[in-house]
Write a structure and sequence with these properties.
By secondary structure, the protein is an all-alpha fold. Helix content is 88%, strand content 0%. The longest helix has 48 residues, at 41-88.
């Protein structure tokens, strides 16, 4: 903002002078507001925090979506590999595996009942929390177990 020299009149009438004063006050008010905003470190930090939080939430959403896509791909590949291996297994082996799976389920149910009877409360709570997490991430867990089973069968076949 430039100021005219003091010896020259700046306004030809009182009305014009009032307008100039009002304009100068308005400019001064805007300048003070801008300086106050720059000096308010707390508000600027909060704005930056909100901005970074928004970015983090957006990035987390993107990563979650990508992880879900990858988990689906892995699950599909594991299912394909398991199906190929299962198709190549002789019928007696499939029957034995099915029978063993049934026995394992029965033993697991029996162990679960014993667990409920004998385990201390804090341990049961932690186990329940782990079970909930496994259920929430079931697709990833199934894909991992499928991959382990397939690898185990492949290694077993190579030994035979």
């Amino acid at each position: 903002m430039t100021q005219p020299p003091h010896d020259e009149p700046t306004a030809s009438s009182q009305e014009e002078l009032r307008e100039q004063v009002e304009h100068t006050r308005q400019e001064l008010g805007e300048t003070v507001e801008a300086l106050a905003a720059k000096a308010d470190v707390k508000a600027r930090a909060q704005e930056k925090t909100a901005e970074v939080k928004e970015q983090a939430v957006a990035k987390a959403g993107e990563l979650k979506e990508q992880a879900a896509v990858k988990a689906g791909e892995v699950k599909a590949r594991a299912a394909e590999a398991a199906a190929r291996v299962q198709d190549k297994l002789p019928e007696p082996v499939r029957e034995k595996a099915s029978s063993a799976a049934g026995q394992a389920r029965a033993k697991a149910a029996e162990a679960g009942r014993l667990w409920e009877e004998k385990a201390p409360e804090p341990v049961r709570e932690k186990a329940a929390q782990g079970t909930r997490m496994a259920r929430e991430n079931r697709a990833l867990l199934v894909a991992a177990v499928g991959a382990v089973v397939v690898l185990g069968l492949i290694c077993r076949r190579r030994k035979d």
